[in-house]
């Protein structure tokens, strides 16, 4: 059994634990939270008897788990991942893995020195059959003329922001904003399906504190442009499309990918494959396969391939932020070092 420790007790951690329970090869043993009571309650709600921690050093020095799932605020991902790697724990960190390329480079250097540790960014849709189906279909296109990808979803935390508060997801100090939170999905789409763009630009709708509530990103490729429509302060019901010559891939949602069609003039082909009820099931399955065979060369190669995409997406998101003059506290901290 793979023994898991979790940082963060929100809904996303619960969904991840439910996915590992369904998988059957994992056991949740430890939970870190700002209060032990909250950590223990998290375990109780899942029917588990776990060990609660509120001291991060004690948590990472524990022998009770081998893999840590990090679902804390974005700005904390880097430092908690760093501590985990140094403690010899495998890391599954929620997207975005890092706030900027400087943090990402340090993680890469640590992984090189600690090459027995596995590190994954939990970009869940990247592992799903429908994501891979779109990737394969794009590769088969003789001509690509661009794409329009949309993921705009009203955040439950925006009401708090409008009331004068500053939730983590709308905070520069916590590396929040639409691009960093939802744009990462579309970043994975673009990099995986089309490669690394030559040039990027982000036109952001900034809120009172300078964070981006929504925005339009333009990724320039040789001969075509990919447009990313991102937002956390409004809902969009637009479909996403990839344009070939006469054929078009049409998706209901560029992040959830529940329905995919290939339309060529008057003909239409349904490409959708049935997905698991828990959207994290596919990534958990992939992580499980690798972590149960940690000495396999193919396991290490898969992680390296996924990490390369993670690094590229991180770079694209950073360049987009820079183009819109959105500066995180994490960026300033890297400059101070």
TrEMBL record:
GO molecular function, one term: nucleotide binding
Regions annotated as coiled coil: none
One protein family per Pfam: GFO_IDH_MocA
Domain Gfo/Idh/MocA-like oxidoreductase N-terminal: 3-119
InterPro entries named among the record's database cross-references: Gfo/Idh/MocA-like_OxRdtase_N, NAD(P)-bd_dom_sf
PANTHER family cross-referenced by the UniProt entry: PTHR43054, SCYLLO-INOSITOL 2-DEHYDROGENASE (NADP(+)) IOLU (PTHR43054:SF1)
Name of the protein in question: Oxidoreductase
Species of the source: Liquorilactobacillus cacaonum DSM 21116
